[in-house]
Every structure is written in C-alpha cells, then in structure tokens.
Amino acid sequence: MKKRLIDGVEVQRSSGNVFADLGLPDADKLEIRSGLVIEIRKAMRRLELTRQAAAKRMGITQPKVSDMMRSNFSNLSERESMDCLNRLGYDIEIKVKPASKPVGHLRLAIA
C-alpha cells in the first residue's frame, strides 16, 4: 500500500479489513466474526434486550453476551453468531461464486 504524509504524520489507506492491515492471521474470518457481533449488538439495542434476556433468546450463556458487548468475540464461532442472529430475527444468506483470482476470499455484506 502507498504511504503518504499528512501534517507530518505518515498514513496509509486501509485495505478495508483492519485485521489484515494489522497482519493478523485469519483476517477474513475475524472481519466476518466482528461484523456478525456488531449486528447482534445492534439487534439487542433495537429489541431493548438485557444481557440476560438476550442470552436466553439466543441460546447462549450470559457471560458470552457480556463478552460480545465488550467486543470480545473469541469464544463465539461464526456458526454460533449466525444462530444468534437467526434467533434475533435475521435471515442469513451465504452466496458462493467462482473467484476472479486463483484464491478467493470471504466477505460479509450486511443489508
């Protein structure tokens, strides 16, 4: 990526995936998991659910809900996150198509 100076500070445009920009392994998966957790948090606010009520509705423990609220999603898999969103009234579609490059990538699109 091209770097430039702005007011004496070196900056670099993001790739769109902060986890990849930080050089973390499995950056695509981390981006998807974080996006799912963000939607879960939005749904909880929209539905005005307490952590305890959200845990019951989503079928997970209250400590897992508390972790999500603190942006810690390490103990929640992609599948569990999708199940939680289903239980909060979301439909989830997975679209698979041929990649334009030799190696494809994962992407989360939220409508």
What do these coordinates show?
The protein has a domain at 18-87: 434 Repressor (Amino-terminal Domain), CATH 1.10.260. Helix content is 45%, strand content 7%. The chain has a two-stranded antiparallel ribbon with strand order 1-2. With 111 residues, the chain is mainly α. The relative contact order is 0.14. α3 (51-58) crosses α4. The chain is built from 5 helices and 2 strands; from the N terminus they run ββααααα.
Looking at CATH, which topology of the domain at 18-87 would you report?
434 Repressor (Amino-terminal Domain)
The CATH class of the domain at 18-87 is Mainly Alpha
Shape call: globular
Radius of gyration: 17 Å
Total helices: the number is 5
Counting helices, strands and paired strands, the structural category is: mainly alpha
Which H/E pattern describes the elements?
EEHHHHH
CATH superfamily of the domain at 18-87: lambda repressor-like DNA-binding domains
Please report which band the strand proportion falls in: under 5%, 5-15%, 15-25%, 25-35%, 35-45% or over 45%.
5-15%
CATH architecture of the domain at 18-87: Orthogonal Bundle
- Summed over residues and divided by their number, the pLDDT gives a mean of 90
The low-confidence runs, each spanning 5 or more residues with pLDDT under 50, are none
Number of distinct beta strands? 2
Percentage of residues in helical conformation: 40-55%
The strands making up the biggest β-sheet line up spatially as 1-2
Q: How far from one another are the termini?
A: 29 Å
- Major β-sheet profile: 2 strands, antiparallel
